[in-house]
Amino acid sequence: MTSSEGGFYSAEDADSEGVEGKFYTWTKDEIKKIFLKEKADTVIDIFNIGKASIDKGSVLYINKSLEDIASKYNLSLEDLNQLIQDVRKDMFENRKKRIHPFKDDKILTDWNGLMISAFALGARVLEKKEYKNAAINAADFIINKMITKEGNLLHRYRDGESGITANLDDYSFFIMGLIELYETTFDINYLKTALNLNKVMIENFWDNKNGGFYFTQNDEKLGNFRQKDIYDGAIPSGNSIALSNLIKLGRITANTELEEKTILITKAFSEIIEKSPEAYTQFISSFDFLIGPSYEIIIVGDSNSCETKYILKAINSRFIPNKIVILKPFENIKTAIMDISNYLKDFKMLNNKPTIYVCSNYTCKVPTNVRTAIVSSNEDIFIPELV
């Protein structure tokens, strides 16, 4: 589902050749055509092929521990893992010869924003480089192909052509992805792009009279027909994510105008949310970030040093949802992040080591490079001592 250019495609059919799931399922006979008998029998057993139905294909799954399987076939775990890896590769290559399901190869900005956000967060928590690369490639694709010279987002890309004026979801979801990607890579360019797009979003979608964001851009032809959506269903609403973005960007930059927008957007929808809160879970989650407790964690140090990486690993291994993490490199007296967050000029390294500042509501605890300050007001959450 990833294009060669880096963006994510929209969807793929479940059926091929008129059969549901045929492209992804396997029969015993198909396995026996790929592998010699002994190996084929092993593959059939490991992946439970043909257990549910003899005629129809089976979805591959392993329902036993790898230790039990290794013992059964007198293999080491290392050899078993290698066997599974080799088998999957052979089957994957063989599957390429099948008739593929129809693929909807449109690349949509809003859906890519969701993917970028998920992969960037997953990369931090799970330490998966491939997730980070997927997020970077998709973000770079959107930036290079789907932002006009005037700085406006477009909604759709296909066959080398970008088009369709972007809606609120495109802006809010992609900005969310860029913020997550900044916290994963600390590449200041992603943060700058997020801020620029956020400015455009406010200019084109904000309701100056009642607060909140319209789904469509300013257009005199639409008159009073512009709608606002805050329902959080299978995907969150643009307003719910925009609220979260405003909070994070406001805290990162200390921009009081963005903070003021967060108050206005919550007032705009508070009455309807109070009637059926279960329908607006993402908005409530963003509101929880707003009212706190929430944290700004500033790290001053070389992003490539082992100590800084250790600090980041310790932070990312804990579930602290209402936080932002900012890195101020120490290599130069004036760094790029200070162009965005000028207040960081007062944050210094201690003892020539990476130093952590844990702040809440613009008030910081005593900086330290031995252990972090307390991150939660309800429970002491420390990062282990550096080694």
The class by helix and strand makeup works out as alpha+beta
CATH fold-level topology of the largest domain: Glycosyltransferase
β-strand percent reads 5-15%
Query: What spatial order of strands do you see in the largest sheet?
Result: 9-8-10-11
Order of helices and strands: EEEHHHHEEHHEEHHHHHEHEHEE
CATH-level-2 architecture of the largest domain? Alpha/alpha barrel
CA-atom Rg in angstroms: 25 Å
- Report the sheet with the most strands, covering strand number, pairing sense and barrel closure: 4 strands, mixed
Number of domains: 3
Low-confidence stretches: 371-387
Percentage of residues in helical conformation: 40-55%
- According to CATH, what is the class of the largest domain? Mainly Alpha
